[in-house]
Known about the structure:
By secondary structure, the chain is α+β, with helices and mostly antiparallel strands. It has helices at residues 14-24, 51-61, 78-89, 96-103, 105-115, 132-135, 161-167, 172-192, 253-269, 304-311, 315-323, 358-367, 380-390, 405-418, 432-438, and strands at residues 4-8, 29-33, 67-71, 123-126, 142-146, 156-158, 202-206, 212-221, 224-235, 242-247, 275-283, 290-296, 339-347, 372-375, 393-402.
Amino acid sequence: MKPxxxxxxxxxxxxxxxxxxxxxxxxxxxVREGFDFFTFPQNARILWFDVERFxxxxxxxxxxxxxxAVVSTHEQFGALAASLLTAKLGLPGTPLKALLTAQxxxxxxQIHSRALPEHVPPxxxxxxxxxxxxAVTIDYPIFVKPVxxxxxxxxxRCADEAALREHLRFRLWEKIIIKRLTWPFRRVSKKxxxxxxxxDCFIAEGCVNGxxxxxxxxxxxxxRVNILGTVDSVxxxxxxxxxxxxxxxxxxxxxxxxxEDIARRAVEAIGFTHGLFNVELFYQPAxxxxxxxxxNPRMAGQFSDLYERVDGKSLWxxxxxxxxxxxxxxxxxxxxFGAASSFVxxxxxxxxxxAPPAEQQSWLTATYPDARLFLDxxxxxxxxxxxxxxxxxxxxxVHMGGTDxxxxxxxxxxxxxxxxxxxxxxxxxxxxxxxxxxxx
Length: 440
């Protein structure tokens, strides 16, 4: 029997990196476990999901097999389950306390406020049902988000107390979903962390104005933190909604060096000694100030092929090296492209989107064989909930590269001219890219 590699809660864009890994590692069997977080009825399992029981069931299920590695890029449940399972099986994995600390946004803030005080904004924590007049101890405007969440759910800038009260007005069903999303983490963190703010609470932070957002990716091996690169997070104008993620960063080299140094120190401060990580930061060009947003203690699966296109090796390949206990090697600028991006399609109104016709998708494949289209179409309830919680909903991604930034953007403009996600007859109308731009 081949040794097994367990992949927990794989997402659609994970398959892009997994397929070549599977083809190149036929001496292993790759087995997927977990459920689809976005598809009903599978996602109904969040109502009773117990991560510790899930891990115990996997350990029992594969007790007579040789499990060689456990991997996951899934923020909500997968990374935590992988950490618990690797510890139970004696395999290389991210230390549980470091992972929990990174995912507990309030505790991480406390640690970083001591280790890197000049890179942390004012902050406070409170329950969603607290008297916010007393609980919010910093000045408005504030940026509020759950202590434990994912996908930017319920993260919002609030100009004043009235805006915060409106943001925290949840229906009973929404309260149940929020509590069930945080319950697995809350249950485990209570056993391993010491913090006065629970995982189903909120954290409020002073707003960082006039800032650019970036992600610094890296990995820790044998206790040493290594940086891979920096990705620019480009927003839809006037919003905090991601429009694209572009690698490599277009910021000046000295700024990138500072960002990567701060990211490294932030990761070291929480005791992260093994695994991939992704650090989100703000950079204010006017002042030069850099502020830590948060640490994601797992690979940014959405970025895996961006690094492969530019550097020549996917993050999934690096993830497997670390999970198997190999000493990782990562190339630099040895890929096919000079720039790569994950383009994010969002709807800010109430329009319903559909998959582009088959002939348009065939055109994309024939014209740009390197491009990848990921559909994330939402249906009534999930679309309404995401719009309420985020102010918009994501319905597709396109990943592609170019010889440089300008070439990549020109290729993407052409893609937008040929893909139609709108419901109803096409008729004579502006391109998708033009419609997106005219929305702001």
